[in-house]
Amino acid sequence: MLKLLFLSTPVGPLGSGIGGGVELTLLNLLQEMIRRGHEVKVVAPKGSVVTGVSCQQISGTWQEMIQNNHRDTPIVLPENSVLGNMWDYAKRVETDYDLIVNFAFDWLPFYLTPFLDTPIAHLISMGSMTDALDEIMNRVARKYPNTIGVHTNAQAKTFSFNDICRVVGNGLNLSLYNYCDTPDHCLAWVGRIASEKALEDAIEAATRVNIPLKIFGKVTDEEYWQTIRQNYPSAPYQYEGFFNTVELQEKLGKCKALLMTPRWVEAFGNAAIEALACGVPVIAYQRGGPAEIVQHEKTGFLVEPDSVSGLVEAINKIDSIERKQCRQQAETDYSLKALGDRFEPWFYELVK
Ligand code: HBI
Fold first, then answer.
1. pTM for this one?
2. How far apart are CA 280 and CA 324, in angstroms?
């Protein structure tokens, strides 16, 4: 049995949705490690909501989203940084734990690693973003091999230390997702509405096949969203909004396919496994995480990146995919048990 200390992302409270995919990963991993008999404590910004486990609420100023930075942006820590305060706490209690698990994609946790005695596992949630962050991650990877976990090989390949990090995939609580065998005549797009997600390609494809597109997710780039609405005044799309897991899966399941159009290297692509869990085939650009999730012509289609005609071609063949196969893949590769089978051995290796 291990005593684990999970340090959440500093961009906002757990449960707010600001942290996006990493919130889902932390909560799913927490649930699975407790089910396996380990003790877990969470450290997160004040206002976090975590059911069934003790959560140390840390006050302080949230960290800015790293997506807003450029490659050469210097590291910025605000006055009364919540990230700094989280690590003050971790340093104070570290002897009570066998392993610290860091979920922040930030410079400070890596810089502090050699100053703590308890081993630290870093689970990183994006591909390479800035030079300063790459440099400090590389330093930790070299000094402490295999202490950095990534979700996919594609994400690992964006870093120079891809040969000494651990690919751990991701996973879902599949009992929350219901299989739907008879979809309505519509397509789905799920994700933060921001330029790196290239929603315009999905709208263009839906327009060409004249099938309504349902859009789910938080608008995190207002200007980008307004541009889309101006450029596609009469396209067949409907903005549905941002939903929690239970509501999202109920609406997503009724769609003929999920379109994934990432312009950047998506580290994983939680939406892909959420769709599969509902029996929804995935049509994705052959780029980043989704390219390692979708089984081409079995649970969806992988098309040439940035090719709208590729999306259209796949949409026209979507009925050839057996929806049951999609649910089956989620159960085989992305259940909480599969997630725990990838993380638990990694954690034991680090505490030896
Ligand atoms: N930005 N600075 C910073 N730190 C994070 O941990 C972070 C982020 N941006 C996005 C993010 N985490 C999560 O939404 C990941 O799931 C992408």
1. 0.91
2. 9
